[in-house]
Design goal:
Layout lengths: L13 H8 L4 H20 L4 E11 L5 E11 L11 E2 L5 E2 L24 H4 L1
Antiparallel strand pairs: 1-2, 3-4
């Protein structure tokens, strides 16, 4: 707690100990696995990611000294942006891949059965 004096009776490993005990260690395992996934994705994608642990603490009864703790693990794993495709709209409201306003060029193949001789730049001089 902010402003807690240095002589506080809080055990220094309270957080670590509590996380280790949540759901008999499963929360800690989930955190470790998720952290590994985030690190791998950050390396591949080159964007920031995060792992978040939220611990809800609720009293059980009045003044019983018992508390129910629930850990909520979430991750923000960066991803590559989804690929996009460009389409052209027609006057009728349809979509197509070719631009309806652009003329089509007719290409013909010229057969060449002879091997092509390439010259080296030094030979050309």
């Amino acid at each position: 707690m902010p402003g807690t004096p240095p002589d506080s009776q809080c055990r220094p490993d309270l957080f670590q100990h509590t996380v280790k005990e949540l759901r008999e260690g499963r929360t800690q395992s989930e955190l470790s696995e998720l952290l590994s996934q985030v690190v791998q994705a950050v390396r591949e994608v080159g964007k920031q990611g995060s792992v978040t642990l939220k611990i809800n603490v609720a009293p059980i009864g009045r003044a019983s000294g018992q508390y129910e703790l629930r850990g909520d693990v979430k991750g923000d794993i960066p991803q590559f942006p989804a690929a996009s495709t460009i389409f052209f709209g027609t006057p009728q409201g349809n979509l197509q891949r070719n631009d309806p306003n652009q003329q089509t060029l007719e290409f013909t193949t010229i057969p060449n059965n002879q091997p092509t001789q390439f010259k080296n730049a030094q030979e050309a001089n």
